[in-house]
Design goal:
Shape: globular
CATH architecture of the largest domain: 3-Layer(aba) Sandwich
CATH superfamily of the largest domain: Toll/interleukin-1 receptor homology (TIR) domain
Largest sheet: 5 strands, parallel
CATH class of the largest domain: Alpha Beta
Structural class: alpha/beta
Radius of gyration: 22 Å
Order of helices and strands: EHEHEHEEHHHHHHHHHEEHHH
Number of domains: 3
């Protein structure tokens, strides 16, 4: 017989990060897409604006939020204009990014060009993009803690959701209603943190000596404000894999070597599979010849539904997939300081799921037409 402390908190696997003034829109998103569409229960979702808010009266707000993010499996951030004006949202965003649980969704009129800080270069979804919104369903379908509704149910709810989205967006208050003094206070805090961090990295020796958990956490908060070169002209001590890290260089070289043995469409398709987005893969007109070659070489297999799927019986396909996964496994295994050195130097997260990382090391991003970014 199991027992539970009366003060124990049941962790919710899905955390909804949103501005409090966008509460009605957040509720609409949760009820239409996550509950009615994907089949999640209210008890699986942490959303402070929900009618069944997980924060009861008298609960200390900040520790409960931190605990919820820590215990969650995925943090869905509804990034609106109001979101960027909220210090609480910025804190939640930083915590989710550091924990690698973040799934950011852009709320119109916010667009990719508006992104800054930790979201710069991160793969984001558009709330009004029917095709992209299916990535939420794919993430839940792959989870071992939830069995979602059939895809047809979710698809129907997506259409209902999009039909009513315009009305919800029209109700969103202007970000100018947010207290500007509160935002200014946050800016001052960021400047103070930035100043402290810059002082701690006067030299590579200084960074190594100060590399304690508290400093590393500080660095994560202001990572994109740190220059790669210290004031005295010395380097920050950041690892540059292309020149000094043999293991990582070998992994990248292996991916590139195997990638050259398959048509570009297969390289992109395997990449999409490796990052869990194969369901949204599409072929461009510029790849027609490559697609025919892939079929002729047995790299894909036809099915009764008229679709073609990767043939993992092919050594080239399976080896390329394993090589890509090995790159992510490498970064999952390194220590925090080593990873931080890379992020400070390259200004992006080391993961095959990040656009900037993929372009830097493999020369392309799997969603783009290879005619625009050649292999």
């Amino acid at each position: 017989m199991s027992s539970k402390s009366p003060n124990a908190v049941t962790p919710e696997p899905v955390f909804i990060s949103h501005s409090s003034v966008d509460g009605a829109m957040a509720n609409y998103f949760v009820e239409q897409l996550l509950v009615a569409g994907a089949g999640l229960s209210a008890s699986q979702i942490f959303c402070t604006s929900a009618a069944s808010s997980p924060i009861s009266a008298g609960t200390n707000f900040n520790p409960r939020i931190r605990q919820a993010i820590s215990h969650s499996r995925i943090v869905i951030a509804l990034v609106s204009r109001n979101y960027y004006r909220s210090p609480f949202c910025m804190s939640e965003l930083g915590a989710a990014w550091a924990a690698e649980k973040l799934l950011p969704i852009l709320v119109p009129p916010v667009d990719f060009g508006d992104l800054e800080g930790v979201l710069h270069g991160v793969h984001c979804l558009r709330l009004e993009d029917e095709r992209k919104i299916f990535e939420i369903y794919d993430r839940l379908r792959e989870a071992n803690w939830h069995r979602p509704n059939p895809a047809g149910v979710y698809a129907a709810k997506v259409k209902e959701f999009l039909a009513g989205l315009g009305g919800q967006l029209a109700k969103l208050p202007s970000p100018d209603v947010v207290d500007r003094s509160e935002y200014k206070k946050l800016e001052n805090q960021v400047e103070e943190l930035t100043s402290k961090l810059k002082a701690s990295i006067v030299s590579a020796e200084g960074l190594r000596a100060a590399a304690k958990p508290a400093v590393l956490e500080l660095a994560r908060k202001v990572i994109f404000s740190v220059p790669p070169i210290a004031a005295n002209g010395t380097t920050t001590g950041a690892v540059k894999p292309s020149g000094g890290d043999t293991e990582f260089s070998d992994l990248v070289e292996r991916v590139s070597r195997i990638g050259k043995t398959v048509p570009s469409v297969i390289f992109r398709m395997v990449y999409a599979r490796a990052v869990g987005s194969e369901a949204h893969f599409r072929v461009f007109e510029s790849e027609a010849a490559d697609w025919e070659a892939a079929v002729d070489q047995g790299l894909v297999r036809p099915y009764d539904d008229g679709e073609f799927y990767l043939n993992f019986q092919s050594a080239r396909v399976s080896q390329l997939h394993e090589a890509l996964r090995a790159v992510d496994d490498f970064w999952a295994a390194v220590d925090v300081e080593y990873r931080l050195d890379y992020e400070v130097s390259c200004r992006h997260i080391p993961s095959i799921r990040e656009i900037d990382f993929s372009r830097k090391w493999f020369g392309f991003w799997w969603e783009e037409d290879p005619e625009d970014i050649p292999f």
